Amino acid sequence: MSTLFVNNLNTASGTDITIPTGKKLVVADTGAITAPGMIIQTVDGTDGTQTSHSSTSFTASNLSVTITPKFATSKILVGYGITCYGTVNQEHLKIQVYRSIGGATATAIVGNSWGLSAASNGTGASMNSQSNIFHDSPNTTSSTVYTVYGAPHDGGSGTGTMYFNINGTRGQMFAMEIAQ
């Protein structure tokens, strides 16, 4: 095996350096080379704090992750799992993820009133676990915070109280930066 020592590597033309199919390039500093589809970094978080609210507006839970993308062109794959509890008959529990870039006001990832996931019950109080995975294109290299929000929705018997992480169950969330 030979070793090639260089101080600079540049293209003869264009912007891409191509590696033949079936070959791989191994780099000691994992931040030095990226390829489309490559996972650049992963962050995760958990929270077991029981919180509650009765507002029909989306309200933040304590479950969030912060990622600072290395490249503005990257996609961010985000996933969550959280246990919710509703206190009245036919209450729908809606989950949404909000994003804040560089400390700005958090905004909903999806613009609809039902969020990214929802669950309901027929009679009595209900407990459910909700999860979803989605990708985002924040187009930034600033610190980006993803937070799980929730809202109860009156399904017929009034709007009750929505609990996150009832009885200390743990919610989990992750964000992965994927090169494009």
Features:
180 residues, mainly beta, Jelly Rolls, six-stranded antiparallel β-sheet, five-stranded antiparallel β-sheet, elongated
Query: Quick one: overall form?
Result: elongated
* CATH-defined topology: Jelly Rolls
- Using the CA coordinates, give the radius of gyration: 21 Å
Query: In DSSP terms, counting alpha (H) and pi (I) runs of 4 or more, how many helices?
Result: 0
Runs in which pLDDT lies below 50 for 5 or more consecutive residues are none
How big a fraction of the residues is strand? Answer: 35-45%
Largest sheet: 6 strands, antiparallel
Termini Cα gap: 31 Å
Task: Please write out the topology.
Blueprint lengths: L38 E9 L3 E3 L5 E9 L7 E12 L5 E10 L5 E2 L8 E3 L6 E11 L7 E10 L8 E3 L6 E8 L2
Antiparallel strand pairs: 1-11, 2-10, 3-9, 4-8, 4-10, 4-11, 5-6, 5-7, 5-9
